[in-house]
């Protein structure tokens, strides 16, 4: 399946940039990808006492409550349209070319976005350029993505995620300065519906809307995805999933692939 047919000059028909078409998969996104307060605390600690923060690849505005003044940047028109009324409108721009002066903000942040960018190094250099202080990046470690039980059922989906997420070392090298990497525990009732958020609630992944809100599913042929979902549904009905993974239903947190990368100028 050709997922780049509606891309022109690095932008898609709805304005989104990168490898995923948020004009299609972003519909209904906010119903499934609601920011989780426990994850937000990690981001808030990373940006510290910053008063002004730029949120790059801001989507519908997740995790923007971390600072008194946040400037959002989002190239997808469909995602900008889903921003709630209490948030300021997002600037239509891409990470690789931020329309701000050097050192314009106290800090910069991005969540679940770097794997969408057409040029990772350029986007990270831009974040470093416009931020006087910390740069905080919520992402997934590709080396850990396939450790999740979903790989038994949807291998091409997690292969896609592992391929798209940049190596943590590449992020650190591009940002420079003093870099730290913190694992972010995923709560069992996580409100931000990325794939691992359903580690203890596998039934949620039978919902087409939940899968659509995780962009990696859009890179796999629909017929193949249907086979994956059917197999998971069968194992849930038969109890086979619970025989292998049922202990996760009682586990309050998962230490999975979710990490927070923080860089401050050296």
TrEMBL record:
State whether keyword Methyltransferase applies: yes
Q: What is this protein called?
A: Methyltransferase domain-containing protein
Entries under SUPFAM superfamilies matching the protein: S-adenosyl-L-methionine-dependent methyltransferases (SSF53335)
Q: Which organism is it from?
A: Actinoallomurus vinaceus
| UniProt-listed GO biological process terms | methylation
Q: Name one Pfam family in it.
A: Methyltransf_11
Q: Which residues form the signal peptide?
A: none
Citing just one GO molecular function, the answer is: methyltransferase activity
Gene3D superfamilies reported in the protein's UniProt record: Vaccinia Virus protein VP39 (3.40.50.150)
Q: Which residues form the Methyltransferase type domain?
A: 55-132
Q: Does the keyword Methyltransferase apply?
A: yes
Q: Which UniProt keywords apply?
A: Methyltransferase, Transferase
